[in-house]
Amino acid sequence: MQAxxxxxxxxxxxxxxxxxxxxxxxxxxxGWPLLRTIYFSFTDTSLADLEAGRWIGFANYFSVLSxxxxxxxxxxxxxxxxxxRAVWNTVRFAVISVTCxxxxxxxxxxxxxAEFPGRGFVRAAVLIPWxxxxxxxxxxxxxxxxxxxxxxxxxLLSLGLxxxxxxxxxxxxTAMVAVLIVDIWKTTPFMALLILAALxxxxxxxxxxxxxxxxxxxxxxxKVTLPxxxxxxxxxxxxxxxxxxxxxxxxxxxxxxxxHTKSISVFARENLFEFxxxxxxxAASTLLxxxxxxxxxxxxWLGRVRLDRDY
Amino acid sequence: xxxxxxxxxxxxxxxxxxxxxxxxxLSIVSGDTGNGxxxxxxxxxxxxxxxxxxxxxxxxxxxxxxxxxxxxLWLAAHNSDIDVYQTDVIWAPQLASQLVDLTAATKDVxxxxxxxxxxxxxxDGKLVALPIFTDAPALYYRKxxxxxxxxxxxxSWSELAATAKLVMDKEREAGHKDIWGFVxxxxxxxxxxxxxxxxxxxxxxGQIVEPDGTVSxxxxxxxxxxxxxxxxxxxxxxxxxxxxxxxxxxxxWQTGNAVFMRNWPYAYSLGESEGSPIKGKFDVxxxxxxxxxxxxxxxxxxxxxxxxxxxxxxxxxxxxxxxWVASPEMQxxxxxxxxxxxxxxxxxxxxxxxxEQPVIPRWKDVFLNAVPRPSNEAKVRYNEVSNxxxxxxxxxxxGEGTAADNLADLEVTLTKLKGAAW
Lengths: 311, 422
Known about the structure:
The complex is a heterodimer of chains A (about 300) and B (about 425). With about 300 residues, chain A is mostly helical. Chain A folds into two domains: about 1-75, no CATH class; about 80-275, MetI-like (MetI-like fold), CATH 1.10.3720. Chain A contains twelve helices and two strands; from the N terminus they run H-E-E-H-H-H-H-H-H-H-H-H-H-H. Chain A has helices at about 1-40, 80-115, 120-125, 130, 135-145, 150-160, 170-200, 205-210, 215-245, 250-255, 265-275, 280-310; strands spanning about 65, 70-75. A two-stranded antiparallel ribbon of chain A has the order 1-2. In chain A, helix 2 runs antiparallel to helix 9 (about 215-245) and helix 7 (about 170-200) crosses helix 9. The two termini of chain A are about 35 Å apart. Chain B is built from 18 helices and eleven strands. In chain B, the strands form three sheets. In chain B, strands 2-1-3-11-6 form a five-stranded mixed sheet. A four-stranded mixed sheet of chain B has the order 8-9-7-10, sandwiched between helices. In chain B, strands 4-5 form a two-stranded antiparallel ribbon. In chain B, helix 8 (about 190-200) crosses helix 9 (about 220-230) and helix 8 packs across helix 17. Chain B is globular. Chains A and B meet through helix 11 of A and helix 3, helix 10 and helix 17 of B. Chain A: Belongs to the binding-protein-dependent transport system permease family.
């Protein structure tokens, strides 16, 4: 008994020793900046002098000002319409893009799962949009979507689908559509890849049994394929969802400063670096972090509940 | 150990003392448009030859808004990799605390510059940046097309709209399908603040925040000016103008697809360059006045300066570099090569410039009457003021809410921003 516990202790010690470098690095590159950002969000720090900030409590988030005239004013992030607009833009972007990417990714994965000559080549080719750096693809699409010289307008015009050239990235109605088009184009391959990996793991016997029993292909995909790949699909959707909620680069390059597409990250950057509101931007970043953390916890909890029930 | 340190210190001192005027590596950031970077490189090559120092240009995106965010970040991080920043005329009050005071080092040269520009770069008695060129926008127009249809130069914004429409319609009938009447900078960024300030100011609507600090933007004349501009979008200006910055509008203009363009002087020499489809077919004039009380021609004062970072490891060499680029010889070179407006008064009477770039001497009056943006009034909050203004304008132009409503909202935002005092 005594010896075994000593062995355990030794193992635990060794485990910590091996984990230590990673924990130190994580604390330095993720923990410290995070704590500092949270700290800044409770001060009135300005970028001109990061050390000069004073502690002001929750004022960046919410504060009540009573005017001498008796009027009561509310201030702070939680009552800032620009913030809520950014939240709405971000959520809308995340929901639409992830839904479209999942459906399209599924279709692409099912096609790629079929046996056909040149499959390896097509699989590699499909990944290209995902491999291109976002800045490059955003700039490329910006030119393609340009209202005067853009190829998209040119093609649509020659096909007779539109009467006049559309200013894709300029007008409020189409700016979000443009962002969505580019994001879906770029990230569908990622979804397709994850789903394809799940499809390849499925045992062939089930399909053979289904064929022998004469189950229609539609019922097979609905009752057999989908439930079997659901865990992998959930993981893919969660990853993409969290990724989409912190969208920055694509929107920043494609439609900078457009209030219709400004996401939470773009809003935070604007306050952090462009305006003299470093602390306010820190507060926005902190809230974004909280949203992502809560969602992640929720998803993990959801996964555990399901896990307990299913297996 | 102590002995070793002493030895090391001695060795370093010996090396330092032995080397004659040590050559240093400097770096300069610039986000210039058109062929501005090429001309800057030429100027720096001449400096390298003279001084033996090496200067690297770090190119930046052309949007001033993007540049500012990056510079602010570098300065906050006490970045010593960048020695010299090319700064916009509006940044001085916002960056002053992190730039070297050039007052003493430039005592001998500042008198040659226009006092108003030097004033704009002076914060609390400190000269934080030395001007290298100034900017005031022009109305570019297609001489050939106006002559073809017997149209006169517009004397007001409404005449401009009428002429633009006339020429555009006739040209389209003649088979030139892609032509538009007028292009400007309608994207939501600092450039829209410049354009819209001109519309408002020329219509007698004030300058957003007046020199005494009052927020003046919510007035009927300003609203009328924005309504007028709203009327252009989709009629004489392409709908995409709401996403145009300088280079996008120049793209439409220089391919021969616009009758009028509002742009800075740099577009002149590019339009006249070899291979340009509009070479010899265009000219420039002042922007037209609006209507109503106090209407006048207004041009937003632009311009760029060089500032030395407080965190530079070679401040002396950097100041020397700044003085070189801002010198009369180099400003003349820049004027001749790229039609940039000098900040040295005497150069407007220079015979070579008058011959090679006749547009420049004509520009002196435009720029002497130019309207500054309220950067000195709003101080560190200028960017937020400008952002609120261009957002209100962009909303109006894209048809979200009326000009009057948007300006009323803007007044509330700006008054709140101002607080007790700017």
